[in-house]
Amino acid sequence: PVDIFFGLWDMPCGWRYEDATTGYKYVFLYFNLGALCDYDSYYWYDASQIRRILYNTLEWFGLNPSVPHDIGLYNWDTPDSVVGDTYTAVAYVKNYGITGEDFYVYCEITDSNGAVLYKDSVSVSALEPESYIPVTFNWVVPETVAYPCEGLIEAVLPGDYDDGNNSTTFDILGKVEGIT
Asked: Beta 149-156 vs 167-172: how paired, if at all?
C-alpha cells in the first residue's frame, strides 16, 4: 500500500496501492466509527483503533503494510504562572501506534527577549501501544526573569506517522509572589 486514508463517521476508510500496469487502485472498508468509541459519546473515537484495524486487515490480505509508528501529547499541565522557586510542566505522552516505542520528550522555556532559560529532555523507553506516561520537567526559576515566557514541549519519534500531535506551546505570564 502507498498510504492509508480515513473517512469521517459514515465515510469509507481504506488504502491505496500502486499497480504496475494500471496505476493507483483503491480498497475501501466501510464501517461506522461510532462502533469504535471508547466512551459513551457517539462523537468520540480513537484514530489509533482505526489504524490498528486497517493495519491488521492489510496484513491479513498479505499486503505487508509498514508499521504505523505514532506517539503524541495526550494531555499536559502547564500553569500560566510560577509559584515558588520551581516551575513544573507535565506532558502526558501516549503511544497511538501498534508497537512499543522508544523516543524523547523535550522542553524549552524562553523569556520575552528570546533567551533560552531552560532546556531539558527525557527519554521514554518501551511505551506500549495505547499506553500513556507523564513526563515531568522542573525548571528552577532564577531571581530575574523577563516575563512573559514561552514554553515548548515536544515528543520526537523518527518516522512518526502523525507528528501534528507531538507538541504544544504555553505561556508563563509571571511569578506569584508571597506563595511558596
From this structure: antiparallel
pTM beyond cutoff 0.90: no
| Type of residue at 125 | S
What is the Cα–Cα distance from 164 to 91, expressed in whole angstroms?
15
Rounded alpha-carbon distances, angstroms, from residue 43 to 35, 97, 101, 128: 11, 21, 29, 26
Residue whose C-alpha cell reads 509498514 in the numeric block: 66
pLDDT tens readout for residues 104-151: 999 999 999 999 999 999 999 999 988 999 999 999 999 999 999 999
Judge whether 81 and 175 are in contact, CB under 8 Å.
Answer: yes
Between CA 101 and CA 112 the distance in angstroms is 35
> Measuring CA to CA, which residue among 115, 90, 85, 108 is closest to residue 176?
85
Secondary structure, 3-state, the chain: CCEEECCCCCCCEEEEEEECCCEEEEEEECCCHHHHCCCCCCCCCCHHHHHHHHHHHHHHCCCCCCCCCCEEEEEEECCCEEECCEEEEEEEEEECCCCCEEEEEEEEEECCCCCEEEEEEEEEEEECCCCEEEEEEEEECCCCCCCCEEEEEEEECCCCCCHHHCEEEEEECEEECCCC
**Rounded to the nearest 5°, which phi and psi values hold at 58?**
-60, -45
